[in-house]
Design a protein that fits this description.
By secondary structure, this protein is mostly helical. 85% of the residues lie in helices and 0% in strands. The chain contains 18 helices and no strands. Helix 1 runs parallel beside helix 4, helix 5 packs antiparallel against helix 15 and helix 14 runs antiparallel to helix 15.
Length: 378
């Protein structure tokens, strides 16, 4: 429950940035390429948070690491409301990013270490259902704040309280078994480490595509359809509603007939198609693409855990570390392409990222043939 509530808090703060992004650009008089650093700098610092997570776990334990992450994201979000320049804003984003990097690893380690293998896949998808639920709350909360006549600064102060409440809950969580909380992490080397990096890149390409949608969809709708802030957030609400529906479906119905890898490939094919058609034909299809993206993250976490067993904590940490690098690149590329070609063309990067991720998953059995011979049951 501590992990679930932590991801709910993180998801709310992470996704409420998108609806307020146009107002923030206007308030601080930023160019599109400058404004992209609002998202990118958090991911830059999150790289270090994710990289340091295994050491933090061995030093203070998983529960304490979760608490540190909650404190940092709350502090970072509150500090954003005090910013009067791009530099001050980016400093606050760096604090938020460090918390983000630490927190996203420990949320998954709590599930990985604390769940039996037969329930792990469903619990991972349940975990990300909380993220999707928070993502729905984000645009709805933003719409309420807009209707109430308040600024993005006021809104950020209110949502910064959510991780603090979760932190209070986490303070009452008893420490789990010492061997689980502070494990002796066996590190992968050679071909196994290359396999971890390969899967980290494939998963990160999906994450960049999802974030390109969640952070830029409101801006895309406003500039292409000319809708106001409150109306344009409905498309983002629809996206996260579809994301939540898909994750709840996987949580309550295990689909045991299909391996995690089969679901991942099907998810990437369908989400690539709907994302592309949404940009070409009808923007509501962009919202629908969330349903097909839904299984990807939870299934990938289970797939990593099944593939690397006792080394999966390293693999999870590595996937978020690599993800931070690619997310920074995505935010900068989308910002730059928006500046050059407009948001309506810049978002075509999303389907490209998904297609690249699909390509890597399809090639994986050929590149790591020996490992696949050991995993014929998955």
């Amino acid at each position: 429950m501590a992990a679930y509530l932590a991801l709910l808090s993180f998801g709310l703060l992470d996704n409420i940035r998108g609806p307020f992004f146009p107002d923030l650009i206007s308030d601080l008089s930023l160019r599109d390429d400058q404004a992209s650093w609002f998202f990118a700098i958090a991911s830059v610092v999150a790289f270090f948070g994710s990289y340091l997570a295994p050491r933090i776990q061995q030093t203070i334990g998983a529960i304490q690491g979760l608490r540190v992450g909650l404190l940092l994201i709350s502090a970072g979000f509150y500090l954003m409301t005090l910013a009067e320049s791009l530099f001050q804003l980016l400093l606050a984003c760096a604090v938020f990013g460090m918390g983000m990097g630490v927190l996203q690893v420990f949320e998954h380690i709590c599930i990985q270490e604390g769940s039996p293998p037969q329930l792990r896949r469903r619990l991972f998808n349940g975990l990300h259902s909380f993220y999707a639920a928070a993502a729905i709350l984000a645009p709805l909360s933003a719409t309420w704040i807009f209707d109430y006549g308040k600024s993005w600064r006021w809104g950020f102060k209110i949502v910064a309280l959510v991780p603090l409440v979760t932190l209070v809950y986490a303070l009452f969580v008893k420490k789990i078994d010492e061997k689980l909380e502070k494990p002796n992490i066996v590190k992968a080397k050679g071909q196994e480490l290359k396999h971890m990096l390969y899967l980290s890149v494939a998963l990160s390409l999906y994450v960049t595509a999802e974030l390109s949608m969640s952070t830029r969809l409101v801006l895309y709708i406003q500039r292409t359809l000319g809708l106001e802030s409150a109306d344009s957030t409905m498309y983002l609400t629809g996206f996260f509603a579809c994301l939540l529906l898909g994750r709840l479906l996987i949580t309550f119905f295990d689909f045991a007939r299909f391996s995690s890898r089969q679901v991942i490939v099907a998810s990437l094919i369908a989400s690539t198609t709907t994302y592309f058609l949404g940009l070409k034909l009808n923007p509501w299809l962009l919202s629908v693409s969330g349903f097909f993206m839904a299984p990807m993250f939870g299934m990938s976490m289970d797939y990593i855990a099944h593939t690397f067993h006792e080394k999966s904590s390293q693999a999870i940490s590595l996937s978020f570390t690599v993800g931070s690098v690619l997310i920074v690149s995505m935010h900068y590329m989308v910002g730059l392409f928006t500046q050059w070609y407009g948001i309506e063309n810049a978002l075509y990067l999303g389907p490209v990222f998904l297609a690249l991720g699909l390509f890597l998953f399809i090639l994986e059995p050929r590149i790591f043939r020996e490992k696949f011979e050991q995993l014929t049951d998955h």
